[in-house]
Write a structure and sequence with these properties.
By secondary structure, the protein is mainly α. It has two domains: 1-21 and 207-226, no CATH class; 23-204, no CATH class. It has helices spanning 24-45, 52-82, 86-94, 101-112, 124-137, 155-163, 168-172, 175-196; strands at residues 11-21, 206-217, 223-225. It has a three-stranded antiparallel sheet, with no helix packed on it.
């Protein structure tokens, strides 16, 4: 039964333990899944026209971040297994931090011997996913490919042609690509976990928290052992 404000709680001395681990790849992957479900419903119901592209931007970014989080978790776990000093293991994996996600996957291939075909799904998607992710992470001006051309038509047709112009990232960021990227990243995650012999439950955030009563403390600071 929880304590209420009008119930005076006794003061104690205790030993607190916090044996929990947070793996951010779980939250990021959940964000990607949430955006996928939200967008799937929007396309099925056809009840939204505005904001769908913005949601796809958010989804594909979370998918790319999830892939990097997955790869970092597996790499760190493998290095910790092979090292007696976990601090040195952390330092060893930090050597990969500035590498691209694809290069990190190549490192995992060497560690695990997993069979990877870069020309087929799911791994063929990594390059395109990273390119789109980098367009948003390091945005640069996108000028139209064609600045001037001749055409025959009406005023309304010309205006439509100009309105229909889309920058490269918008042309590439389709719903088909978003769903393919999500499916392929999850497939890569499962394959790498299996190759690294890591149980999925060990990749989830969680643990235990609590405290152990050592002594009762009175108003004067005196203690009575529990």
């Amino acid at each position: 039964m929880p304590m209420t404000d009008d119930v005076k709680q006794p003061r104690i001395r205790a030993r607190l333990t916090n044996d929990t681990t947070d793996f951010p790849h779980n939250d990021i992957a959940n964000a990607a899944l949430y955006m996928r479900e939200r967008l799937s419903k929007a396309f099925e119901d056809k009840d939204r026209g505005d904001g769908i592209f913005l949601d796809m931007m958010a989804m594909v970014t979370m998918v790319a971040f999830a892939l990097e989080g997955y790869v970092n978790f597996i790499g760190m776990t493998l290095i910790e297994r092979s090292a007696t000093d976990k601090d040195s293991a952390a330092a060893s994996w930090s050597d990969y931090e500035r590498k691209s996600t694809k290069d990190k996957v190549k490192a995992l291939r060497k560690m695990t011997g997993v069979d990877i075909d870069w020309n087929k799904r799911p791994y063929a998607t990594i390059g395109e996913l990273n390119e789109i992710r980098n367009m948003f992470a390091h945005p640069k001006p996108h000028k139209p490919k064609v600045r001037e051309w001749e055409a025959v038509g009406t005023d309304a047709e010309f205006r439509k042609q100009l309105r229909d112009y889309r920058p490269e990232y918008e042309e590439r960021l389709t719903w088909e690509f978003c769903t393919r990227a999500y499916d392929d990243v999850e497939a890569i995650w499962q394959q790498l976990l299996e190759a690294a012999k890591i149980n999925l439950i060990d990749a989830l955030s969680g643990g235990s928290q609590g405290f152990e009563l050592l002594a009762w403390v009175d108003e004067n600071g005196g203690e009575t052992k529990a």
